[in-house]
């Protein structure tokens, strides 16, 4: 199916060995994927959405024959199973729809509790949460831009880069010493014991410097968030800013899952939470740049 989106996938099966010709399936992690090998039949984003929706537990209502806005998104916070849609009538004779844990309703009342929530309350809560989340993302993006544009930030990044270059030069220097060491021994300028002692020292020094460089490169990454495509995922949310009505397309675009608690509260797992976490860690790590920027104003 990946070929539809312009990606070639190979290595799904292989022979056990050149002697044993029995073919075995290969785990997905070991498949060879090459993107952009040919023109896609469908847009990649549409393809990914279709793949994601195919994994959801989606059922069409037997009564209305329609797909609910919430189908495949609502789960019980305790047992993790889907929530079932039901309807009822209150004391005033007004009908309303609500959701209830499918484990409680279909399997056993001993295995889980109701976790009921009225559809009206669910819609209000999700709408409010989406708009608050969008505001958070926009504020976060603005702070990241301030950090990236600050002189303090550029100086920190350049300093770390200069230290990395200095240590790389030091490795080259020690490597040259190590190369001439063997010749010194052969020319009897140093003893065999001295040769082995210096060789071990140089190797340890090189390894120590390489470890230092790895630490510095990790440090440098904390100073940097690449500008290229950095806001694409935030833009998905920004387009929905100020929404007053929910649709299934909006849920597909922004939300992974909604967990319903026993007291009717909800927890929403938004898409791109890992990216948001990285942004917040970046801001926390570089808050000095923001503080200096405020003082400068």
Structure report:
Helix 3 packs across helix 8 (273-285) and helix 4 packs antiparallel against helix 5. The protein has nine helices and ten strands. Strand 9 and strand 10 form a beta hairpin. The chain is of the alpha+beta class and 297 residues long. The protein has helices at residues 44-54, 102-107, 119-149, 151-186, 192-223, 232-238, 248-254, 273-285, 287-296; strands spanning 7-10, 13-15, 23-25, 32-35, 74-76, 83-89, 95-101, 117-118, 255-260, 266-270. Among the domains are: 1-55, no CATH class; 154-223. The strands form four sheets. The chain has a three-stranded mixed sheet with strand order 5-9-10. The protein has a three-stranded antiparallel sheet with strand order 6-7-8. The protein has a two-stranded antiparallel sheet with strand order 1-4. The protein is 52% helix and 15% strand. It is elongated.
Helices and strands in order:
Elements: E1 7-10, E2 13-15, E3 23-25, E4 32-35, H1 44-54, E5 74-76, E6 83-89, E7 95-101, H2 102-107, E8 117-118, H3 119-149, H4 151-186, H5 192-223, H6 232-238, H7 248-254, E9 255-260, E10 266-270, H8 273-285, H9 287-296
Parallel strand pairs: 5-9
Antiparallel strand pairs: 1-4, 2-3, 6-7, 7-8, 9-10
Helix pairs in contact: 3-8, 4-5
